[in-house]
Amino acid sequence: MSNIKLFESKQIRSIWSEYGQKWYFSIVDVVAALTDSQNPRDYWYRIKQREKISGMELSTICRQFKLEAPDGKLRETDCSYTEGLLRIIQSIPSPKAEPFKRWLAKVSYERLEEVENPELAAARMRELYKAKGCSDEWIEKCGPPGCEHIYEAKTCPPLTAADRKRIAHEN
Which residues contact 48 (CB under 8 A, 6 or more apart)? Predict the structure, then answer.
């Protein structure tokens, strides 16, 4: 299964790997989206060489998949899963990558804070479920899947699209 994702109107080719049960994304497409490089393939090559000198072999977090090229042919393309891609983006010395790097640092800091204070994680979870249309009553009674030890979720059916719509109108 192949798919196109958009990032700031730039196409990022992606592919689902049954083997790893993960999405993989074209690194060259990400480099093109986060830089002003006329040749993102060469830019990616230079990043790999620079990181190799520093002791990090970026190719260890990449796999090659055949993705459709602009000419319509399938070509071997360096791809990485989300975690690896986040590491690669940290190596991109481009002003266009800086907002993404700042966001990544902020999210990382917040998650580290949640490790120290799990109540912060619970509050974030509640806000996410509210944003998805869940009522405070449902959140308190049912909670998210996987938290049965905290909530009595076994008695709560999953929310349907109609439930979400109804809940959104009630709030």
Answer: 58, 59
Pairing of strands 74-81, 63-68: antiparallel
Q: What share of residues in the chain are helix, strand, coil (percent, to 5)?
A: 55, 20, 25
How many other C-beta atoms are found inside a 10 Å radius of the C-beta of residue 171? 9
Q: Looking at residue 75, what is its pLDDT? A: 95
The 10s digit of each residue's pLDDT in 62-110 is 999 999 998 999 999 999 999 999 999 999 988 988 888 888 888 889 9
Helix (H, G, I), strand (E, B) or coil at 34: helix
The three-point CA angle 76-82-88 to 5° equals 75
Instruction: Note the pLDDT of residue 84.
Output: 92
pTM of the model: 0.67
User: How many alpha carbons lie under 13 Å from residue 130 in its C-beta half-sphere?
Assistant: 10
Q: Which residues partner with 89 through β-bridges?
A: none
Nearest Cα neighbor of 17 from 84, 81, 89, 86 is 81
Q: By three-state DSSP, how is residue 166 classified?
A: helix
- Residue 120's nearest CA partner among 110, 128, 108, 130 is 110
Supply the mean pLDDT for the chain: 82
